[in-house]
TrEMBL record:
Organism whose genome encodes this protein: Lentzea jiangxiensis
Cofactors required: Zn(2+)
Protein name as it appears in the record: carbonic anhydrase
Gene Ontology terms: biological process: carbon utilization; transmembrane transport
Annotated Gene3D superfamilies: Carbonic anhydrase
Length: 741
């Protein structure tokens, strides 16, 4: 996955006046120009005093910025709190809402001191982004009412009803100011070389200038004097309602701040955020803003990303922007009071819609989480933020429960394969499939499960006993772990089987080995052109030591003590695509292997002692019960025989003379199933049959077969289809491998 390049903002550089003047001071002016219109717009959107947004911006910059655990995060009026605060203002009034904010700040400080902040990050991203999208839709619908000249209500359904009324008689001045602000906000970033001036500031300035020129009849910003500040009062209402409000403000403000801090970390290469300290800083800010009648504070990604992009290096940028806002309000309040409310509403409408990310929807859809996202959005929009989050969490938990307890049941003839976690929720489907099996057969129940609860064990055991009473046979084959066997012995497992380190022996080096040099290995003898750490075999050995060795060590230790006792001599080609242990699902100690070009067994009279010695050792010393000769498709030795491409006098030409009888056999009638194979592949089948005949020329083999202690088998491996066949030496044909009884 490609990530956007990170800014060098936030690098660990010495603090000092030069750094602050060069980087933080310019960044603070950019932030100031953005924060003024956003702070006023957020406050107006909730029905709070406009000065509450300014107080929140000042304290968020100065106080939270000074204490913050995420120095480059910018805090101020919380966008994600708009819907909540609007509801609190309608229910309790602003003075009581300020008291709730103060109490929420105390709760945030307590949470930060307990080190619980990281638990907030355990929330499903689908729920978090669904919550933000629902908030964005709620903001957009409410501000659309204001753009049309009305006054927004506290819920989306109520605002939808107001929209129908406003559309029948909109106020022309408000519509013009709002649409101009929206248009400028959307088009300004497309204008080249002017992006240094924030789009929200330009949008509000243009809408205000147009309103003054056209003398539009619109509602404007009304800033009260400092003596008119609203101080907190105890809310009137049930204790439960007040407590729920405090917890909601604290949790949503904390989630928005912590998520923003983590997201801001991804934008720079400086020190990472200290989340517990950040939560304490946010709580301190909310205690103070609540005490002064300000809007609840939270960290915001829009402001924080602007801070990083503007080149800020330290927390001084946040502190300065808070100071500039305070100075502007005290010195230029008359200029701020010229701003039309519809212009601020237009800015907030666009901000709200930006919280609904189509790219995020696509990502969640690819990961199968869109249902959780949609449930959260609908819950927030229709019922409120807390109800929406609870709805999203409930859907997420149900989906997680389904995934953790889901199992698949597949029936293949008389074999039933069960994969996943087998608990009571999946018993019904399994039993239905088992009862459909014909009676009187030998059934293999193959369990690939990481957990088997008591209900599932009883269901399987009851069915097995009933099936066997009616004349059938049942064999339970446990692949992943022995849950059924343990329960049978009265020692049922109690916890899921944790996945262990997976060996990579079944995949080629090129599949799992990435960029050479990722693994550091001791120096080896190698050419200067190829450094030792790039050797795929050495990296494979390292991977074996790290992952596979712990899994096979118990088997190898036992084999080292009692010696090898393989039951098979496996003679196959040296082709790198033929892996005997892979195609036979065997392990250490199972196969005694001989590999050569073309899987040839020279007759004793040929004078080759290598293959003959291995055959004698396997039969006379190891007492193997089976000798297997395995050929394969696309064999280079067979192609060389067909084309006669081996140079005379070469070792290859001398070796392939042992396969000349196979060429004679190849011209004999071929089984119908092999007629469609390429010439070299048909020769490979005939070659396997011929090598089985050659084995009979070895005295030790002939005697063991006569004694009934040895059998010969021919195999053919189709590389492109990863399929193994039995070779019929009498017909030079292929037969599918039969299913085990």
């Amino acid at each position: 996955m490609n990530h956007p390049p990170r800014s060098n903002a936030g690098e660990h550089t010495p603090h000092g006046p030069p750094l602050v003047l060069r980087h933080d001071l310019p960044a603070s002016f950019v932030l100031f120009l953005i924060s003024i219109p956003m702070s006023l717009g957020i406050a107006h959107a909730t029905g709070a005093p406009l000065m509450a947004g300014i107080i929140s911006a000042v304290l968020g910059g100065v106080v939270v910025g000074a204490l913050s655990g995420a120095p480059l995060q910018i805090s101020g009026p919380g966008t994600g709190l708009v819907v909540i605060v609007a509801g609190l203002v309608a229910q309790f009034g602003w003075a009581a809402t300020a008291a709730i904010t103060l109490a929420a700040g105390v709760l945030q400080i307590a949470l930060g001191l307990t080190g619980i902040s990281r638990l907030v990050m355990s929330l499903s991203p689908a729920v978090v982004h669904g919550m933000l999208a629902g908030i964005g839709i709620s903001i957009a619908v409410g501000q659309l009412v204001v753009v049309l000249g009305g006054t927004a209500a506290s819920s989306v359904p109520a605002n939808a009803a107001l929209l129908r009324e406003q559309l029948t008689g909109p106020q022309l001045g408000s519509v013009v100011a709002g649409l101009v602000a929206i248009a400028v906000l959307l088009l300004w970033p497309r204008v080249p070389r002017v992006s240094v001036i924030p789009a929200p500031l330009v949008a509000v300035a243009v809408a205000t200038g147009l309103e003054l020129v056209l003398r539009l009849d619109v509602a404007r910003v009304d800033l009260p004097d400092s003596h008119a500040l609203v101080f907190p009062e105890m809310p009137e209402g049930s204790v439960g309602a007040v407590a729920a409000a405090v917890v909601t403000v604290a949790l949503v403000a904390s989630m928005e701040s912590l998520l923003s801090a983590v997201a801001t970390d991804r934008l720079h290469d400086g020190p990472r955020a200290r989340l517990d300290r950040e939560l304490v800083a946010q709580g301190t800010g909310n205690v103070l803003t609540g005490a002064l009648g300000g809007f609840p504070i939270s960290g915001g990604l829009a402001r924080s990303s602007t801070n990083v992009a503007a080149g800020a290096k330290t927390r001084c940028a946040a502190i300065f922007q808070g100071l500039w806002i305070a100075v502007a309000v005290l010195a230029f309040s008359s200029a701020l009071e010229m701003i039309p409310l519809a212009a601020l509403a237009g800015v907030l409408l666009v901000v709200g819609l930006k919280l609904v990310s189509v790219d995020r929807m696509r990502t969640l859809s690819r990961h199968g989480e869109f249902v959780v996202y949609a449930a959260t959005v609908l819950g927030v929009v229709l019922f409120g933020l807390l109800e929406g989050v609870v709805t999203g969490l409930a859907v997420a938990l149900l989906r997680a429960l389904y995934r953790l307890t889901h199992c698949s049941v597949r029936v293949e003839g008389d074999r039933v394969c069960v994969r996943g976690t087998l608990v009571f929720l999946g018993v019904g489907r399994l039993v239905r499939e088992l009862r459909r099996l014909p009676l009187g057969r030998t059934v293999v129940l193959e369990l690939h499960v990481d957990y088997l609860d008591h209900a599932s064990y009883e269901a399987i055991d009851d069915w097995r006993q009933g099936y066997e009473r009616l004349g059938g046979r049942v064999r339970v084959d446990e692949v992943h772990d022995t849950w059924y066997d343990q329960a049978n012995q009265g020692r049922p497992g109690r916890r899921k089987t944790l996945p262990g380190p997976l060996p990579r022996w079944f995949a080629p080096w090129s599949h799992w080995q990435g960029t050479p040099g990722e693994v550091t290995l001791p120096a080896q003898r190698s050419s200067a052109e190829q450094p030792p750490e790039s050797d795929p075999m050495l990296r494979g050995m390292h991977e074996f030591e790290r992952r596979s060795a712990p899994l096979v060590r118990p088997f190898l230790q036992e084999l080292a003590v009692r010696g090898q006792r393989p039951r098979q001599l496996f003679i196959t080609c040296a082709d790198s695509r033929v892996v005997p242990n892979l195609i036979t699902t065997s392990g250490p100690g199972d196969l005694f292997c001989v590999r050569n070009l073309g899987n040839l067994v020279p007759v004793p009279s040929a004078g080759d002692s290598s293959v003959g010695a291995a055959v004698e050792y396997a039969v006379e010393v190891l007492n193997v019960s089976t000798i297997v000769v395995c050929g394969h498709s696309d064999c280079g030795a067979m192609k060389a025989l067909v084309k006669g491409s081996a140079s005379r006098g070469s070792h290859l030409h001398s070796w392939l003379r042992n396969a000349e009888p196979s060429l004679i056999r190849f011209h004999a009638p071929t089984a119908p199933g092999c007629a469609q194979l390429p010439v070299a592949d048909r020769l490979a089948v005939a070659n396997v049959a011929q090598q089985l005949d050659n084995l009979l020329g070895h005295p030790s083999v002939k005697e063991a077969i006569a004694a009934g202690t040895l059998s010969l088998k021919g195999l053919y491996f189709d590389i492109s289809h990863a399929r193994v066949y039995l070779v019929d030496p009498d017909r030079n044909g292929l037969e599918p491998v039969p299913s085990p009884a």
